Amino acid sequence: MTVPSDKLSPAQFLQHQLQEVITLLDKQQLETSLVQRGPATNHELIEAVLHKQHKTRLQDKFAQLHPADIAYILESLPLDQREIAWDAIKSELDGQVLLEVSDAVRQTLISGMEAEELATVASNLDTDEIADLAADLPKRAMLKILRSLNSKERLHLNTILAYQENQVGSRMDFGMITIRDDLNLKAIKAYIRKLGKLPSNTDKLFVVDQDNRVKGILPLQRLLTHSPFKHVSDVMVTDFVMFQVDQEISEASRAFERYDLISAPVVDSNGELQGRLCVDIILDFIRDKSDEDILTQAGVGEEEDLFSSVWKSARNRWSWLIINIITAFASTRIIGLFEDIILQLVSLASLMPIVAAMGGNTGNQTSMLIIRSLALGQISSSNVHRLIKKELTLAVLNGIFIGFIMGFLGFLLYRDWALSAVMAIAMFINLMVAVVVGLGIPLFRHKFGKDPAVGASVMLTAITDSMGFFIVLMLASLFLIK
Length: 482
Known about the structure:
By secondary structure, the protein is mostly helical. 67% of the residues lie in helices and 5% in strands. The strands form 2 sheets. Strands 1-2-3 form a 3-stranded mixed β-sheet. It has a 3-stranded mixed β-sheet with strand order 4-5-6. Helix 7 (115-122) crosses helix 9 (139-148). The protein is flat, with a radius of gyration of 30 Å. The chain starts with 9 loop residues before the first helix and ends with a helix.
């Protein structure tokens, strides 16, 4: 029994659509293979007819879907099936789908397109959307796109591209309505009716003076609820949020969350209106940043496609795997230095991993807290010392508590007070080390302008494992071996 699509949750709907596309692709592959095995007569003609039929079916399927849903499907398909599906997507949808897919998948799609085809795709996009694709477009295609734009569009595109990726100016768009404060609301309404439609995410109009400096904003709610004979200056809001073109986009994203913004003006150092920032761009930034952080914490580059070649994926992961193997060898050498002690006290072999694992968990707790706080801008030079003091105090408390539990359980297992005391002290010291490392890695990386999340989990686990083994074995050699 087929469940109607309107009864499915969004996640179920996506899975349903993906499965239907996969079924169509599998059917195409099966029919093509049967034709190839059959009589040689009219092979090419039959294959051409089948290809056209399958392409039409895929086109009809994709025509019913939103570009974001198509992007999800493409990301979930292996490379050979993705190429077939991408070929079936109608050209007017190409640009929007390219904007929605991940960076890695976008590169695989663009790599199979000619410069003329990319220029045609760009003709259906706004200048800010073209700017989003610019980094992935070949130089020849970008030149063709620039030549196809009018002078105003070219100016807008060059303006956006002039800013760094992490600046507000690189994410702004120009779909805004500006008004003067000496007009009455009736004239503004007539002007909007004449336009016929509003730019997407328009919740306010921007009030500017003759020099294009922003004086205030006119929310649509006020435009609709106040007397049409009132002037803009009487009802506009002068206490509003706006952003500088060179401001960090991460800072702007926090402001959007804090003040529940839908759109906001973007100005230069002179207060002149340059564009606007909208909530859809902020949501895309937050999603991309979240995905990037998850991958970088594990030492995986964000440019890796789920179905990229084995060779490409391997090269993408090798750097952190090499670091892992080096740190693993360091840990084994530490154990090797104390082989005699382990032979005399076999119980250490079963207890050492517990100390190392607890250190890794504690360090990751601290590290994740610091990374999140840095991302939210909550840590500054004025409060960082208090934060460090608080975390170290917490480490002492946790070290005493967990160390006591470790010692107690060690005694229950081996009935040796000296051994249980050594394990308790080792646990306490390693938890202190873990917190120091968990604080130090993200804070130092942030201080030197590096992403605090990159490889944090990998480095922290390696250090706490090595130190956990070393601390246990060193204490055992001092207090347990006679």
